[in-house]
Task: structure prediction
Amino acid sequence: MPRWGMAVDLDSCTGCGACVTACRAENNISTVGDEQASLGRAKHWIRVERYWEGDFPDVRLKFRPVMCQQCNNAPCEPVCPTYASHHTEDGLNAQVYNRCIGTRYCANACPYNVRFFNFFNPSWEKPLHLQLNPDVSLREVGVMEKCTFCVQRIKATGIQAKAEGRAVRDGEIQPACAQACPPRALVFGDLEDPDSEVSRLSASPRGAALLEDLGTRPNVTYLPRLSQAI
Amino acid sequence: MSHPTGARINTDLLRPLLLTSWRFYVLAGVFGAIVLLGLVSWFTQMTLGFGISGIRWPVYWGFYVTNFVFWIGISHAGTLISAILRLVNAGWRRPVTRCAEVITVFALMIGAMFPLIHLGRPWLAFWLFPYPSERLIWPNFRSPLVWDFFAINTYLTGSVLFLFLPMIPDFAVVRDKSTGLRRRIYGALALGWRGTPKQWHRLESAMQIMAIAIIPVAVSVHTIVSFDFSMAPVPMWQTTIFGPYFVAGAIFSGIAGLLIAMAVLRKFLHLEDYLHPVHFENLGKLLLVMALLWGYFVFNERLVTYYGNGPAEMTVFRQTQNGPYAPLYWTMVVGNFVLPLILMGIRRFRTITGCVIASIGVIVGMWLERFLIIVPSLGNKYLPYSFGTYAPQPVEIIITIATFAAMALLYVLFAKFIPIISIWELKAGEHPSPELIPPATEEHRLGDLHL
Result:
């Protein structure tokens, strides 16, 4: 059984936001409009956090793409009363939209604030409604949604590999964010395979989990920024 | 201080049932209209989408969950207090128990509405029920929300029984005093009560069992409500003190609710001869004890957080201590601690008016306490980039007001159809003369009811 994970090299991240755009297009994330977005209801399955360090003029800007950390010990899972949030065999935090009744408890329990609620039925500004991905289900009002590691691509590639009678090759599965990342700061793969690029990067002495002391054991590893340039 | 006797007890306490004044229609109409407005708001929310509320990322719980905890807290007034007073056989409890038990049942019914109101898809709420589905899907028994479901249902069932049992002899009194349809309805409710020694004995046994059984249930209910928070890794939520802290707060707000209800009943139903200042004084003392206990818990929670100095906890701590939530926080401290301490601690102020003022302070303070537990923690959770805030929208404010109106409406209706003070207990306790008491066991004649 694979264990899907991601390594995020913050030294490479330029904060361009291509991952955010790619994720929206791939996963049919509805737009909520200016007004709702200003209320804090925009749904960003992946976001680029910006932190400024130091005092002007000696300021350093740091970027940190944050998506669902796909925790091995996920706080969102035990609190869901209907098993809408649950753990799959290949180590993903799955969100079953059809089973979600919208208690929003999972989002409160999540220390990373990466779960999003559908306050209204989904809608897209024209012509975005013409580019919906047929592989991804739409989420109705009252349902939580979040990053899936592009589970539709994981499944499709797995089926293809099985049909061809071979194992999934490292790098064959690319979530939309990793595929779109120009400096290849996001690397996805199987953490159970010691030779995969993601395993190699995650084992780096630089590697650290976000909010590691909470004991959530995420499948996402961050390689903190070492370079000094702004 | 006059003590009414047998026939007058009947007349006084049955008057609201047999005579209907225009005031009843006005009150029921006004409260009913507000409740209706609340229901319309809820259906609007379901039709237009949850977005018309003020909930937003990352503060996903707001007024609704505050109200949920608040009303479940109020429900601890009745059954728990009345059960304890029954078990210790406090004679002064007799006119108080029923108005307390009624608060429990109604507050639980209102509180239990909020998990539905706050759902994103309330039409699927039955998925919380452990019903045998052909797909073999059960609710997640690890989730504190499912524990809530069981705890509240157990408590509601127990409280209804605990309320209903001592009403049986009173239903019989109403049955015997009325004719026609009313006689048939109350006759059915009286379950064939004839007041034989055997029936009295069974009633006593049943009430004794319920009084003992309901206390651990009441304690467990609010502990489980506190688990909704303390089981999630959220700063200032994950603390071992939440169980007892919530139970103490619940009893605290419950006593305050009971005092206000008693003062209103005394005034509007002219029960001055039944609810004496001594009842208010005794409950006022209980309010004082709970205020001290609440202060002790808050002091513990705050001091330990401050000394622990965890960065996430201290962020939330500062938000409430001297940040944007500080005005609400200090209002809470005044309402929950300073005000009751002064008014209930000094004997001169421990009057009916003093009790009502202190109780209003406690009600406001305890509501704010729940709000301040939920919102600042969710809005300041670990990653500063994802900090956020919350502002209630009209739909939430209307529904909140409507719940208070619902409580008032249910209370008005109850007082209209059922004697709000237990007739037989009053007679059994204070008037041991044989002609005035119901035909009862030897214990009743001695006025020594072991309940």
